[in-house]
Design a protein that fits this description.
12 strands, alpha/beta, single chain, about 425 residues
Length: about 425
């Protein structure tokens, strides 16, 4: 569920929700910095298992193991936060506790699963007395079969293609040279591609192999009974298990945001409903910190349009993208790579026309493609929007392009949106 939330993360322009998301990230980051990382288990999605449980289908061992790990994670998280209350000088985490308090501990179900399956989803012999008894008998039969076959390996090695016991059709067999196939009696189960080796179940072990096969049937039936029984135990808690997965997914999502904030040395930004952006030492989040040149970006307070000029390869587009990415990050609940006291605006939409978006399929020129995008932006932008333009009017006559750029900027000024535009100065 946490992976799903990351993949579907979207920015919001609700200030209350923004502050709540940022507080979640800040609290989880504070725990990480205090070396108190949330004990969140690594889980596969339980969506299909929950659908099967809902219709009464029998869950398999791997599904039970995942549910057991989920319930173990709930128990660990509750214990983790209980221990935090006893420690001094640790940050308060009300937003995180909100999600933890909604989880439902199911200790009896968790213990039942622990007795039934191992960490790989295999059914344990401790799942029932009968299963334990069947497996002991099965092990004894296999030992008897192997002893007889090992004795034959030693006493009649000259009649065998290889000195080993192997399996065919789930029966223990010996690899016998073709010319001696009639010396062992029993059943032929296979032969080599050359026909020189015959895989024979000697008569001396046929009865034991049959008994072993019967025990294997008993084992499968008992495993089916155990899985059916524990699935029935889980059905009344179907809703609680789903809720636990969702809540732990939320905590996993929050923890991922905090780990990312640590990795990029991010800070919790402030937010301005007046669209005033003040970014100090802002860094592009996808560029190596050793290679990036931090920039201060101010827009919205004293002017609503910022035009950046300079020659090609001067880093203008990076500044443009930095503003757009940091706004999207901040409005998605992520901390941003910038210096303390940095502030973002709160925008309903962020529009961008950057780079060559030429559409070959529609047979449009570079200029026509840009204009199609720009027209769409201008139709949808509001006075709460942020627009990023990369070289307005490029790809056409310079004088006509300049006039077009002025007309577009005049229109965005009337709308009241915040605009950053790049302008190339030929060197």
């Amino acid at each position: 569920h946490g992976t799903y939330l990351v993949a579907n993360m979207k920015p919001t322009h609700c200030v209350h929700l923004l502050n709540y998301l940022q507080a979640e990230t800040e609290q989880a980051l504070a725990l990480i910095e205090a070396e108190r990382t949330l004990p969140i288990p690594e889980l596969e999605s339980l969506q299909e298992s929950m659908k099967r449980l809902e219709i009464g289908a029998i869950l398999n061992g791997k599904e039970l193991n995942q549910i057991g790990r989920l319930l173990g994670g709930v128990r660990s998280l509750k214990s983790f936060f209980e221990d935090l209350e006893d420690e001094e000088d640790l940050p308060e985490t009300p937003q995180l506790l909100y999600w933890v308090d909604q989880t439902v501990a199911l200790p009896e179900i968790e213990r039942s699963i622990e007795r039934t399956v191992d960490h790989k989803g295999n059914i344990l012999s401790t799942a029932s007395r009968r299963l334990g008894s069947i497996r002991r008998k099965l092990q004894n039969k296999e030992q008897q079969v192997r002893k007889i076959l090992n004795d034959l390996l030693q006493s009649r090695s000259n009649e065998l293609s290889d000195a080993l016991v192997t399996m065919r059709n789930d029966r223990y067999v010996l690899p016998v040279k073709a010319e001696f196939r009639n010396n062992f009696g029993g059943n032929v189960h296979d032969q080599s591609s050359t026909g020189q080796t015959i895989y024979i179940e000697p008569q001396a072990v046929v009865k034991l192999n049959n008994e072993r096969a019967d025990l294997q049937v008993d084992e499968r039936q008992e495993i089916d009974r155990i899985l059916r029984e524990i699935t029935q135990q889980l059905i009344p808690y179907h809703g609680d298990i789903e809720l636990n997965e969702q809540r732990i997914g939320q905590l996993d999502f929050i923890n991922a945001r905090a780990l990312y904030a640590r990795d990029i040395q991010g800070i919790k930004p402030g937010f301005s409903t007046k669209k005033n952006v003040r970014l100090y030492q802002a860094r592009h989040p996808l560029i190596d910190p050793n290679d990036i040149v931090p920039n201060d970006i101010f827009i919205g307070e004293n002017y609503q349009t910022l035009i950046i000029t300079g020659p090609n390869t001067g880093g203008k587009t990076i500044v443009l993208k930095t503003l757009g990415l940091l706004q999207l990050m901040g409005q998605s609940g992520l901390h941003i790579p910038a210096a303390a006291k940095s502030q973002l605006g709160v925008f309903d939409q962020i529009y961008a026309d950057i780079g060559d978006e030429q559409s070959i399929e529609q047979s449009l020129s570079t200029f026509s493609s840009h204009m199609t995008n720009i027209v769409s932006i201008l139709e949808h932008a509001t006075h709460h929007s942020l627009i990023l333009f990369d070289e307005l009017g490029s790809g056409t006559d310079p004088q006509e392009g300049a006039s077009l750029a002025v007309a577009i900027l005049n229109h965005t000024r009337k709308i009241g949106c915040i605009v950053m535009q790049l302008l190339i100065i030929q060197s």
